[in-house]
Design a protein that fits this description.
Elements lengths: L3 H15 L4 E6 L12 H5 L4 E7 L2 E6 L2 E6 L5 E6 L8 E7 L3 E6 L6 E6 L6 H4 L12 H8 L6 H5 L10 H11 L12 H22 L38 E5 L2 E5 L6
Antiparallel strand pairs: 1-6, 2-3, 3-4, 4-8, 5-7, 6-7, 9-10
Length: 271
Amino acid sequence: MPELPEVETTLRGISPHIKNQTALKVIIRQPKLRWLIPTELPQLIEQHTLQSLRRRAKYLLLNFDTGTLLIHLGMSGSLRVITDNTPVAKHDHFDIQFTNNKSIRLTDPRRFGAVLWLGTDPESHPLLSKLGPEPLGTEITANYLYQKSRSKKVSIKQFLMNQDIITGIGNIYCTEALYTAGINPVRAAGNISLQRYQKLLDIIQNILTLAIEQGGTTLRDFVGSDGKPGYFKQELNAYGRAGQPCKRCQQPLSEIKQAQRTTVYCSSCQT
């Protein structure tokens, strides 16, 4: 699933081509994604200007002069800039054509993505209204995480992936952050000190920032190709390395399931 850095890179990749442009035509080829694409979207968007774009958690928000469109890439989706004569492939479900001869196209083989109209008050929508602070925003602090975690028996990994607590930290980068911080992913969130939360938050921010910076080298991929930045060819220390030697102590990395998500960690180094 695309995580925060991939969504941020998508945002940066498409923005220069469509910001301040007027939507000419909306094409809905397959309305049945995670939720039905609203049939009234053409009337809401066509002939209106895309004033700005932003990311909230893993959602892309396109702000038109009539309201806000939400796009989610789901498990395997991608959003790219194309020209109007680009051939349509099997899983190309949704386009917005602009008057500058550029379009954005949502490709989603598994159809777990979403295209929803949020109107003029997007923050009140159920998908956004309860989201916690951004991990790279000014609102997030170690003390905030520490206070939110008090008396919590849930594991630190599940705590960090709770979007009501902090947004946008997915399985891959959460696994990497806990490994780097030396924190066992099954440790109760309420049993972690303020000092360790400070170290953990610093690492989370460093990992996400580095991933976004690496993604910047792939921005050209959003024009005329598959639009998938991947995971930026980042060298992963834990995720996907179950059974391989820990890069610190050489002990084999362990793999467990937490809330139906795979967790890889070092039982020796992470305490």
